[in-house]
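User: Predict DUF4352 domain-containing protein's structure from this.
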Amino acid sequence: MLKKLLAITGIVLATMTIAACTGNETPKKTEASNHQVQEKVDTKGLKINIEQANYTDERDRNTEKVKQVLRLKMTVENTSIEEIFFDSTKLQVKDGNGKKLAIYPFENMMETVAPKKTMTGYAYFKSNSNGPYTVVYTHPITKKKYEWQVNPER
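Assistant:
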């Protein structure tokens, strides 16, 4: 009888301990907060800084005519010990209505960044509306998204 009572007491204590421990976990944040122009963001291997957002009159003479072109000037710093390829055409840009902007084929930054080195380049997007825009970088391995809110200068 005493063994049964100890077994039941042990089960009750274990159940209470487990119940008390669950539900106290802090939920992990899955998405990064919105960042702004001139804010360096550590994306696990690269520090990305969108330095400037504006509309440009620069055009490629061999491509279709577009209403306006959004140009993002960015600096990318490799904080890892290995080379990392950065492709600005992999950025996703959405207008205020959530519509994805298409890449404008111009001098988009596509570079291999050496360890501990920094490079500056541009990303170009076709736009039919005015800002603000949301720029999203998705880490190629972790799939974590990093967002910036940009409002282009005229």
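The radius of gyration is 24 Å.
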